[in-house]
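User: Can you help me understand a structure? I only have the sequence.
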Amino acid sequence: MSASVLYDAPGPRARVRNRIYGAVSVLAIVGLVAFVIQRLDTTGQFQAGLWEAYEYTDTQHRILDGLLTTLKTFGIAALLSLALGALLATARLSDHRPVRWTATVVVEFFRAMPLLIMIFLLYAAVFTNDPMWALVIGLTLYNGSVQAEIFRSGINAVAKGQSEAAHALGLRKTQVMVHVLVPQAVRSMLPSIISQLVVTLKDTALGFIILYEELLFVGKAFAAQTQPVNGVYAFIPMVIVFGSIYILLCLALSGVATWIERRTKRSRKGAPPAPPVAVDLGTGGSGVVNP
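Assistant: Let's start by predicting it. Here is the structure, written out as tokens:
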């Protein structure tokens, strides 16, 4: 569908207005960035003494250890939350009312529970000596419940004719769910799934509350141990450096999602049809057969 069907194409005056609005917006953003940089410079946040510690090998090793810990925690929590989400979504779509009601209560409870309270409760009550699992299980329960709603919405969005045709072919409900509905739902809901995984990645930063040595905990401890320069502490440089790392991680995850989406679209297109083949029909002449 062309864009002109959805809305009228802008005329000459509208195009001029759009250019003016765009230029004003760019100038406003540039001005805001310049103001922030000027304020940071005025307060002494760009002093070399606050940044030179990041050149040391020991500092880089500490950052790398925190990064690997964050990635390990995210990987485990992401896999478990996807598995839990698929399980709860299947239960919510069950024909058995007790199973459906139980899954609904579980999903709504863990979606409503504040994640920070859940993590702290798990740490204080069960995993005092192993904060990683308090963080992982908290992330799994919360994000798994959200993923369950994403999966359920995706499955319900698949046209009913798909499942009806599969049932007409003699497939059981489990086979219809696994081979027909779930693949189409995952493809259509992939952006939402990846968005929730990005949330999971960022929520690993809550581990510093329970003294888990993930990336943010390492950054906070490093900034606290750095000697102030001319009365200025190193917390703003820490926020800039470690915030940039989190942004790069989220961009990398979004890039992986884009690559997966392109691959799935390419696989759905399939191979091009084979060209017609000329065959000899004997005395009757020749013909063309489409394979």
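Now, to help you interpret it: The first strand starts at residue 277 and ends at 280. The beta strands are 277-280, 286-289. Let me know which part you'd like to focus on.
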